[in-house]
Amino acid sequence: MKKLGLLLIACFSFTLVSVAQNNIVKSLERNVPGQGKVSIHQDARIEALIGSEYIPTGSEDQKVIKSSGYRVQVYAGNNTRQAKNEAYSVASDIKERFPDLPVYTSFNPPRWLCRAGDFRSIEEADAMMRQLRATGVFKEVSIVKDQINIPL
Predict the structure, then answer these.
(1) Strands (E), 44-102
(2) Average pLDDT for residues 32-60, to the nearest whole number?
(3) Is a pLDDT exceeding 50 seen at residue 131?
(4) pLDDT (average), residues 108-122
(5) Which fold has domain 62-149?
(6) Number of C-alpha atoms within 13 angstroms, CB side, residue 99?
(7) pLDDT band at 140 (very low <50, low <70, confident <90, very high)
(8) Could you tell me which residue ranges the SPOR domain spans (predicted)?
């Protein structure tokens, strides 16, 4: 019974904290008659980081935040022209089958790599890895920890 009570209190506290974080900027920017008005001028990326809803406008569509996350490695070759061509070939094949999935081909000495996706959790990366394997085309599929791009 005590454990159930503690669990309910913890869940309620977590809910209050998450609601407070989502509205902290808006709650500070209020106009109280007789007390003045608080205006907060900040970069939109800060709001995105604290969980507020942020809708990008036209020129900001290409801006990203770098973060630690996961990608699915689809190809790893050696330091040859053939490996480079294969890495780009795998990348174009992924883009053909999964048009919304970002694909990154790079040379990380001494090998050419082709990685796909920007996943915040290993579960998301695992789901995509399974989809890539299910095609039967990509055989060297694995999940790697990498720096990812989170679009604003």
Answers:
(1) 64-76
(2) 63
(3) yes
(4) 94
(5) Alpha-Beta Plaits (3.30.70)
(6) 0
(7) confident
(8) 64-146
